[in-house]
Design a protein that fits this description.
Elements (H helix, E strand, L loop, with lengths): L1 H17 L18 E4 L4 E3 L7 E7 L4 H17 L4 E7 L5 H11 L5 E3 L2 H6 L8 E6 L4 E6 L4 H15 L2
Parallel strand pairs: 3-4, 4-5
Antiparallel strand pairs: 1-2, 1-5, 3-6, 6-7
């Protein structure tokens, strides 16, 4: 009995330390955003080569995800504050409840940054998505600066934006 309890405890400890890590993934890599076209929530297709930004936040999310809903108002605020300074935010919805649900959500929440439906190709380009929200911060070269799995305080993203904008000015 003690062995069984100890085994369950060890499994739970392993899951808790690996499941929702708060650590930053600082792995670098270049995402070729220019190679992709995405379907906007309005049904149009957009070529991502039109993005000319110093910092790009790519947020994988969906309408049914509570942590995603918590982060979105912060992204709205960051977009208002930094878009004119070189920030672009791309909301990539998984759209599991359909495109109509995503469009309704974007409209209801007043999302002011471009939202698209995440294709399997773009998910693969980012190395797959294990959970949402998953957010990538890219520099102006399209290189991954930071990767965050799970919800983060908006101040984390603002610090990354400020660091990248400051370094782009050099």
């Amino acid at each position: 009995m003690l062995k069984k309890v100890l085994s369950i405890f060890l499994v739970l400890m392993f899951i808790s330390t690996c499941g929702c890590s708060q650590k930053k993934d600082t792995s670098t890599g270049s995402i070729k955003l220019l190679d992709y076209s995405l379907r906007s929530v309005n049904g149009d297709y957009v070529n991502l080569s039109t993005i000319k930004a110093k910092v790009i936040i790519v947020d994988f999310w969906d309408t049914w995800c509570p942590p995603c809903k918590v982060e979105i108002p912060g992204f709205i605020g960051l977009y208002k504050k930094y878009h004119s300074k070189g920030l672009e935010i791309l909301g990539l919805a998984l759209g599991r409840r359909g495109v109509g649900d995503v469009l309704d959500f974007v409209t209801q929440k007043g999302i002011n940054y471009p939202c698209y439906i995440a294709s399997d190709d773009i998910i693969s380009a980012f190395g797959g998505i294990r959970g949402i929200p998953t957010t990538f911060v890219l520099n102006s070269k399209g290189e991954i600066y930071r990767k965050y799995v799970g919800m983060r305080p908006i101040s984390v993203f603002e610090n990354d934006i400020q660091d990248l904008l400051k370094n782009e000015g050099k």
